[in-house]
Amino acid sequence: MGKREVEVNVNVNVNGKVGSEFPLSFWEVTVASIVVLGFVLGLLGVYLTLPASDYSFLKLPRNLEDLQILRDHLESYTSDYTAQVLVGYCVVYIFMQTFMIPGTVFMSLLAGALFGVFKGVALVVFTATAGASSCYFLSKVIGRPLLVSLWPDKLSFFQAQVARRRERLLNYMLFLRLTPSLPNTFINFASPIVDVPYHIFFLATFIGLIPAAYVTVKAGIALGELQSVKDLYDFNSIATLFLIGIVSVTPTLMSKTKS
């Protein structure tokens, strides 16, 4: 089962529910707070370097309407203040990935709308990989009690799958990144707890996110034509991602058959 097994010691009461005790210690909360403060200071630094203006439009997009408003305002700033927009985009995206905040799909669409396909894909893959890595290392400090408290069954499943595929772990992690088998946010947070080495985590993340990033960024160029986020992934797109995922995991399946 690997060098360090996950000990899923869930505090269960007589009704079979997880206990209500706060899962983090004082020092774990302190570390998380310091990380949040670092991101806030980074965003503040970007904000202070922008020209005086009305920035009431700056908020995390929660729907396509919010995204289109943000795109319309940022287009004028992107040409004159490219560095600030890029740094601000990266800090926000990495922050969202680190703390598993929903909405990164809108940030990926925004990259396509502002920077085009090639630069947009490069930006999304870089920030998504950096954010996933940040989440990975933060989870080393505070992840175990949270995962045990929130998703004990899913954590046990992931632990067992990683242990079974230890020899072909990169293929399996690529499969997870390319298909919606497990949420990416859960993979980011749980990987260090189930002993996925960082170099495998990094490679699988960097390579595995490229196809989905391309689909989303390309859709961002025609942002005005989107009626819903569901329009991003039609049958052909989903089938293609699954096909790539199956190809990535084939070596693992073949090795199991031979043995």
UniProtKB/TrEMBL annotation:
Q: An example of a Gene Ontology BP annotation on this entry? A: autophagosome assembly
Entry's transmembrane regions:
29-50, 86-111, 117-138, 174-194, 200-223, 235-254
What InterPro entries does this protein map onto? TM41A/B, VTT_dom
Q: Which GO terms describe its cellular component?
A: membrane
Q: Where in the cell is it found?
A: Membrane
Q: Which residues form the VTT domain?
A: 101-220
Q: How does it sit in the membrane?
A: Multi-pass membrane protein
Any idea which UniProt keywords this protein has? Answer: Membrane, Transmembrane, Transmembrane helix
Quote the protein name from its UniProt record: VTT domain-containing protein
